[in-house]
Amino acid sequence: MEALVALAIIAAVLGAIGSVIGTTVRGTRAIDQKLALSGAAESVLAALPPRNALKVGRQNGTLAGHRWRIDVAPINAAPDTPPSRFVPLAVNMRMQGPGGAQIQVTTVRLVPKVAE
User: Fold this and answer.
1) Contact 69, 57 (CB under 8 A)
2) What average pLDDT values come out for the chain (116 residues) when binned by 10 residues?
3) Which end of the chain is less crowded, N or C, counting CB atoms within 10 A of the terminal residue's CB?
């Protein structure tokens, strides 16, 4: 009888350990995917043209199996904003990894105003 109780306790402990290991593996995999997405997103954003060559519009492509899309659009300034030599552009990047995980990064670039 004592041996059966001991085996039941051991089985319960091993089941709990297996569950913890499974959760840890899934968490590690999710972190790896997010790190790969962040690294790829950083590479794509670093490869954007310099601000004096940045154009409004959409760009897309792939990098190491990650699909990305960048939308560049002007930001409407408030009417009471003082005049400036720069025009703010919103840069919105969406990236999807091979496993389906996604990331979105939005930033603002100040582009020199074209002389009129």
Assistant:
1) no
2) 90 92 90 88 89 88 91 82 83 90 90 74
3) C
